[in-house]
Amino acid sequence: MKTITITFYILIVLGIPACTQPPDTRGSRPVGDGCEGCEAIFEYGKTVLTSTDTLPDYHESGPKMIVSGTIYQSDGRTPAKDIILYIYHTDQKGYYSTRGNEKGWAKRHGYIRGWIKTGADGKYTFYTLKPAPYPGENIPAHIHPVIKEPGIQEYWIDEYLFEDDPLLSPAERNQQKKRGGNGIITLTRNKQGILICQRNIILGKNIPGY
């Protein structure tokens, strides 16, 4: 009888790991209102993310641009640590161009994309070229951003738009939901002639269900 009992307990103990599901490292609390393609934020592979990234187009021909800012917690004051920011945008002709070896969402987002992870100060910077608008359309040039914070499902925030863009009409401005804060940025030039701009992001701001 003792042998049967001991065997029973051993089987239970050994069976526990097989029945236990691994934790969902992609965030357990869903927010937002749907986010097609946002899972691309996990496609950085084995790259060690830092607070700065240089997108693959930066050394190509076109208007060089440096985008920086601070990501804050929902109070709008406390810098947010360990936040992943994924960005992607069109090339100088307005296309999400590929190089032919893309996998996953890169087939649609193109090769001009990057990933950033904030440190304790919440700051981020990325180097890229100013994107062109879609050819033959009245949609302003833009940069797509996706946010992933610990314990929360990834979600999209307002696109980076450019204040001086002639396609940024009053109607387009009024359509902005200001998810994560205001996404319309003003470009200036530094001493090297490079376009610079700043956008701060507030986690959860105007995100449904946050």
From TrEMBL:
Domain of life: Bacteria
Domain Intradiol ring-cleavage dioxygenases positions: 55-169
InterPro entries: Intradiol_dOase_C, Intradiol_dOase_core, Intradiol_RC_Dioxygenase
A Gene Ontology molecular function term of the record: dioxygenase activity
Alphabetic keyword roster: Dioxygenase, Oxidoreductase
Gene3D superfamilies: Aromatic compound dioxygenase (2.60.130.10)
Family: Belongs to the intradiol ring-cleavage dioxygenase family.
Annotated protein name in UniProt: Intradiol ring-cleavage dioxygenase
Organism: Ohtaekwangia kribbensis
Taxonomic placement: Bacteria, Pseudomonadati, Bacteroidota, Cytophagia, Cytophagales
